[in-house]
Design goal:
80 residues; binds zinc ion
Length: 80
Amino acid sequence: MTGIEKDPCAHCEEMMQPYLDHTLTEDERVEAEAHLDACDWCRRRYRFEESLRIYVRQAADEPMPDGLKRKLAALRIPLN
Ligand SMILES: [Zn+2]
């Protein structure tokens, strides 16, 4: 380990939001999907981000209850 290789999960993390926005190039999308297929941790992160987005879209007009905010905060996996 030299410490300069790119962490594939960090790379996946960078692509997560553009992936959800459908703004990745075809190559990047294939790369992201291959990593999501192989990596349990990123797949769970992806599902969380995806469900969060769906929820935010549905609840855009309502303030988020405190209990749910805490629940979502607890689900968030720290990145380091
Ligand atoms: Zn990963």
